[in-house]
Amino acid sequence: xxxxxxxxxxxxxxxxxxxxxxxxxxxxxxxxxxxxxxxxxxxxxxxxxxxxxxxxxxxxxxxxxxxxxxxxxxxxxxxxxxxxxxxxxxxxxxxxxxxxxxxxxxxxxxxxxxxxxxxxxxxxxxxxxxxxxxxxxxxxxxxxxxxxxxxxxxxxxxxxxxxxxxxxxxxxxxxxxxxxxxxxxxxxxxxxxxxxxxxxxxxxxxxxxxxxxxxxxxxxxxxxxxxxxxxxxxxxxxxxxxxxxxxxxxxxxxxxxxxxxxxxxxxxxxxxxxxxxxxxxxxxxxxxxxxxxxxxxxxxxxxxxxxxxxxxxxxxxxxxxxxxxxxxxxxxxxxxxx
Length: 338
Known about the structure:
The chain is 64% helix and 4% strand. The chain is built from 15 helices and 2 strands. It has helices at residues 12-29, 33-50, 53-69, 73-89, 93-109, 113-123, 131-143, 147-160, 168-181, 185-199, 231-245, 249-263, 270-279, 283-293, 300-310; strands at residues 205-211, 223-230. Strands 1-2 form a two-stranded antiparallel sheet. α7 (131-143) runs parallel beside α9 (168-181). It is elongated. The chain starts with 11 loop residues before the first helix and ends in a 28-residue tail after the last helix. 43% of the residues are buried.
């Protein structure tokens, strides 16, 4: 959290409020969030009594941060909105943009995507914003299919990135996804290789888009969004998609194998991995992964039809040593049972 706005007010309540703010910051660092919230709230009340609107708005933002951390996004939204409104009233656009950024993130948590998008747009009015603002704005624009504007914001995120933000791999991942969706597979591959190199040893989880190399009609899904992705795994799956689109199937499968090694127990890995193996001609492995992807219950009928298109006998109960029902004369295990 940033420092409270300085004030020249000599009222003794100012020092008391500053002490509450310092206490709130310390409690927050210790994970004592209820105590932190109460401290910031007391500081806010004192600043309100004094008539110091700027510090009142700052304390409201701190309170919103604590409520967000505690999982109470609804209350956080209320605090951030009030903070933003006060900064707007005072003509402090920079701080209003910062409150809008926090507000946007909370709105997204509450599945209020359109409102979140509007607040990210507002926050991005500050050209000195953190890369997170531009990256998150690009993410939401990509969800809406506004690829050009999304790419523009991802590039702004890359340009404004500072080392302490530690999100460069996700920015490059998103640049790679946009490049892929726009058909520039070489650029996508380069960006995703760079992203993978950055995140190799990281174990954090994020919300990510995962590319799907499906060879179906134009209406087929090109990607899906999952909210519990091991960062490096998502990047590797996307890198595999770019390599597959370039016909580098062996390299693509190597990326998928590495992704499965990192997070193969998680459901999100199976569907994109299946498409990669299918594109490489490994139908047996593809069918196995498609079947695993059905366990989530999502698009189960659609995936079943994909499997049957690959192997019409995939769901038939046939003993492995029995004749294959396709009439080839081979044993099932040597034919469609592979």
